[in-house]
Amino acid sequence: MDSKDRQIIRTLQAHGRMTNQDLAERVSLSPSPCLRRLRLLEESGAIRGYSAEVDAKAYGLPITVFVRVRLERHNEEDVKRFESRVMDIDEVLECHVLTGASDYQLLVAVADLDAYEDFIRNRIHRIGGIASIDTSFVYGTVKKTSVFPML
């Protein structure tokens, strides 16, 4: 991947609905080479897909929570069980494996505190093998972007 490919990716991250003509103009390419590069980026998996950025509050999920989970044991069976179960929980938007005191950090979106309690009691606790859960509720966002920095 060269700097022009990165420029295409950054432009699409910031303005995903633009036409190939507009993209080509923004990255200083003619439309045919721009489209060829875009298709190669898609085929290689560098661009995995396209989506709309939606306001969670407007959608009906105004509560964002970071949930840090520590497992009781780190054997293959428990890790696979936790990870596969988390994949099936709709409220979990992201799940990251961590170093440090926690094993995982989940980004969770829920409608209200009752929904969060239901999420913990009826989805997370039922996975089993969890030693601790630490929760931080988001009450404001200073910066959120999906545009990568320039290299």
Automatic annotation (TrEMBL):
Gene3D superfamilies reported for this sequence: 3.30.70.920, Winged helix-like DNA-binding domain superfamily/Winged helix DNA-binding domain (1.10.10.10)
Superkingdom in the source lineage: Bacteria
InterPro entries: ArsR-like_HTH (IPR011991), AsnC-type_HTH_dom (IPR000485), Dimeric_a/b-barrel (IPR011008), Tscrpt_reg_AsnC-like (IPR019888), Tscrpt_reg_AsnC/Lrp_C (IPR019887), WH-like_DNA-bd_sf (IPR036388), WH_DNA-bd_sf (IPR036390)
GO terms for MF: sequence-specific DNA binding
Domain HTH asnC-type: 1-62
Pfam families found in the cross-reference section: AsnC_trans_reg (PF01037), HTH_24 (PF13412)
Endpoints of the signal sequence: none
GO biological process terms held by the UniProt record: regulation of DNA-templated transcription; response to amino acid
Keywords: DNA-binding, Transcription, Transcription regulation
CDD domains xrefs: HTH_ARSR
GO cellular component annotations of the record: cytosol
Protein name per the record: Transcriptional regulator, AsnC family
Originating species: Shimia aestuarii
